[in-house]
Automatic annotation (TrEMBL):
Keywords of this entry: Hydrolase, Nucleus, Protease, Thiol protease, Ubl conjugation pathway
Protein species of origin: Chrysophaeum taylorii
Ranges where the UCH catalytic domain occurs: 2-212
Protein name listed in UniProt: Ubiquitin carboxyl-terminal hydrolase
GO cellular component, one term: nucleus
Any single GO BP term: protein deubiquitination
Catalysed reactions listed for this entry: Thiol-dependent hydrolysis of ester, thioester, amide, peptide and isopeptide bonds formed by the C-terminal Gly of ubiquitin (a 76-residue protein attached to proteins as an intracellular targeting signal)
Amino acid sequence: MSWCTVESDPGVFTELVEKFGVSGVEFCELYSLEDEDFSRVAPVYGLIFLFKWTGESDDRETSEAPAGVFFAKQMVHNACATQAILSVLLNTDLALGETLEELRSFSAELPPDMRGLAIENSEAIRTAHNSFSRPEAFVSAEGPATKDDDVFHFVAFVPRNGRVYELDGLKDGPVDLGPADDWLAVARMAINSRIEKYAASEIKFNLMAIVRDRRLLLDEKAALCASDPDELANVEADRALETAKREQWTQENIRRRHNYVPLVVDFLKVLAANAKLKTLVDNALAAKAATPSANPLSSSS
């Protein structure tokens, strides 16, 4: 069974890991590599970096994954988002739930390629991943990407056993980036080095942090400041914002899954029946012809 592409979005990723059975975490999007942005969302358990894959060789040395470091080869197309997420989660001591704990236990002694196959063959993981598939108006045969296509890839950065690792399922092993005394600084340096390899006009990057559920942090903070009414009111206001954010994520994910094709088809039929469709199409074509050609940036999802 094939795997769908998954949008790089904090609400999508958070619901995805909850479907895996993971609790107490969420994803947040980071818009810079500045210290204050990372401090604002602490604690950070790992990073997921999305970039445009160019196919250029990477001569950095990889090694066999040390004991206690989970590394899996990506064995299936379109699974790189879930692969990167698992690369972080399975290298933490978080409450992962039955599905991921069983995967970690089962694959502990397997080589990276067999671990990748274990992920591919996990019905629970594949079902959760594919729950974010988008309804398509037409079914087309899949083919290899061409040189004109934008192909994006996810990699993970995580501290483990005193070292910082870059985990990329397309490589043969992890890249050891150095000591984890200040692991975020080490990871940021590696991410910045990758960004610098692209042209200055390239902006199609996305960085996600796996962090503690903000609601849990605020609940703990509320308990500590219960005797300070003003501070408690501020914390409760922040908690309400987090609740609203989660509700918004839920609604956005419902809309992502909804099939709007019948609505669009019926709308076009109504326009045609009222002799308005051809006029609208002609006006749109004329407006497009009068607009200077541009090279719009594609989405980083």
